[in-house]
Amino acid sequence: MAEDTEDLNALAAAYGVETSYTDWRGRPADVPVTTIRAVLTALGADVSSPETARRELERIEAERRARLLPPTAVVFAGEDLLAADDAEVWIELATGGKLPLEPAEPGSSASASRPPATSAGVAGFRRAYRLPPETPLGWHRVRARRGDREEVAPLIVAPSRAPDPGERSWGLMAQLYSVRSSRSWGMGDLADLRELAVWSGGALGAGFVLVNPLHAGEPAPPVRPSPYLPMSRRFTSPLYLRPEEVPEYAAADPETRRRIEELAAPERARSRTTGEIDRDAAWTAKRAALELLAEVPLAPERAAAYAAFRERQGEALTAFATWCALAEEHGAFWPSWPADLRDPCSEAVAIERDRHADRVEFHRRLQWWLDEQLGAAQGAAREAGMRLGIVHDLAVGVDPGGADAWAYQDLFASGMSVGAPPDEFNQRGQDWGQPPWHPQRLAAAGYAPYRDMLRHVLRHAGGLRLDHAMQVFRLWWVPRGASPADGTYVSYPYGDLLGVLLFEAYEAGAVVIGEDLGTVADYMRDVFAERGVFGTSMAWFERDESGAPLPPEAWREPCLATVGTHDMPPIEGYLGGDHIALRERLGLLTRPAAEEYAELDRSLHGWKELLTSLGLDTADMTAALHAFLARTPARLVGVSLADAVGERRTQNQPGTVDEYPNWRIPLADAAGHPVLLDDLPRHPRLMRALGPVLG
To answer: How do beta strands 488-491 and 474-479 pair?
Structure first.
């Protein structure tokens, strides 16, 4: 039996599946054998018996010995390419021409505390080949020949570090849907984002605005509120369009504009209340307005611009628009569709695409308008003086029934979802319901869907925040039907994923910020630092070994420094223990509320002592905490707009779905009055809160 387990564990190691890990208490934890088997099966391994597992291990080892190149080669500038021994290796440049590679002198081996960084390392390649200094950054092809065997693989030469943000800058952090103006259709949109950036950049000297993920959701109501469980990360949600900002609005006849104004009126009235944001109502009205605008003929120059957009987006745009059209008819969960529509390449899908040609065209055009309004927001931000402009957020994954999961279904691991192991705040673990990328298949696909997704999000961005930044290193896989506590970590070739990310960030001139809060292996933060990826430091979590707040000089420099996150209440709510009261009411506490309040009191006492010792007035904790952030060496300082206006309510309560109105809280002040974008320049509390960082 021990021999059977030994073979299974060896096979798991070959696939990057952990059989044990260190839990949040720092104690070793073993992964259930049932989980290991389920994960290996999802990865395509036959582990139905000890004999098949042994044969699978032998197959992998033989395949790796025979290979000359990794499925995709990723090399950072100034570093070496790993390939098979005794091979002739050369690069075919994207611009034409050939660069032969010579074997390099053996260098220092990778740190034993880190897993292999690239798929070349995973495959066991050790022979290094030196890239000539003139090798340009970008996508090329690499070829290798040994005897009569020859292989070719995609090659990306990535910059060694992410773009640097330069001198210290600060910026507002906002859940865009919550930031409404007098012209909003019930929720914040890209026109509001443009105005927020112009005002904060021009009048206040802000260097950036960080917003929630703007990924695409359902194409028809009901539209779920979470921006972190999208239908697609490759495309954008048309909920954020401002219909009147679409150029075809100006070209529309008076009757069309009148009808659009009628659709907008009730949603604008809703923006002046503190009721929950109603995405269904907003999208119903906007979709009707945008359908009217889609009927307006395009002027010649507009038609040319649209044709260029469609050519640039390629087949991915048509596939997404097809999914949207089918989802309008069959629902936004493709596994429940008629069987012949579940394959995006089927003849039935082609027939339906032709039958729904008008809806496919409509959804393509929405993405064009979004591209224009995203570009206008970033352009206006930079013109207003922002060093970075808009910093976008990248969710960890996608909905299993959505457009990406349909279009790229072979690249996701079937029967698995992403989550998190038990921790101090979620002792049962978490299951986020998102299918994980299949590491080996993604590499074999040349990382094309990953690359295209990043290129889209970064196209009009000055920066990118990686939610749960560990996503480039490893993810916690939970077998379908299992408890999140019974999942395990599966490793990804982080050097590959970082290389693709850094190249796309380089092309966009955008900084990269990793949300590396919580339990993070030390090597992960080391890798980020080496590659110029900024971390995230949050005041409530920054403590020394005794649990006391970390003094400002002990904070790291390459990070985004904030007071809190969207998963915690704003400062006013935190000070009042609102998060404890809410969790107690919802039955989410794992210990008596009295203990939670006592711990909060101790934490706040420590913070007040530290702030007072620094000469800061704790009578206004919001201003004092932001003054504290200004004293850290952090080169990026983020100020939550909700904190600045005195909002008490949290945007999201982890561990809930409908028990709390997650992602539906509009911006309001401490008294519960709505705060519109129009009010911000004259908002006295906001200016007091921002005062410490403006200097």
So the answer is: antiparallel
